[in-house]
Specification:
CATH topology: YaeB-like fold
CATH architecture: 2-Layer Sandwich
Structural class: alpha+beta
Number of helices: 3
Number of domains: 1
Number of strands: 6
Radius of gyration: 12 Å
Order of helices and strands: EHHEEEEEH
Strand content: 25-35%
Distance between the termini: 37 Å
CATH class: Alpha Beta
Largest sheet: 6 strands, mixed
């Protein structure tokens, strides 16, 4: 069983700059708001979660090991919002 982990410092930065936390992201993933999982084109050792956050796609790069899913960051994506038919109202 894998568990989620992240940098506490990065989490604080996300709260201040993007208005979202890793705790919220994990809650949304576990609540069925995960839209997809894809390879991260820029980083071969990473994948990305595409998460529906208030009807907008948020990209969450992560590294998965045997026991852990380490969340790297989170950022909104117009490209994936369009792909999944989402739009902020």
């Amino acid at each position: 069983m894998n568990y989620f982990n992240w940098s506490a410092e990065k989490n604080e930065i996300l709260k201040q700059t993007r208005g979202i936390s890793f705790e919220e992201i994990v809650f949304l993933i576990e609540s069925g708001n995960l839209l997809g999982v894809e390879e991260n084109p820029g980083y071969p050792n990473q994948k990305i979660y595409i998460v529906n956050v208030e009807n907008y796609a948020v990209i969450v790069p992560f590294v998965k090991t045997e026991n852990e899913i380490f969340l790297k960051t989170a950022f909104p994506s117009r490209k994936y919002s369009k792909k999944y038919g989402l739009s902020k109202t």
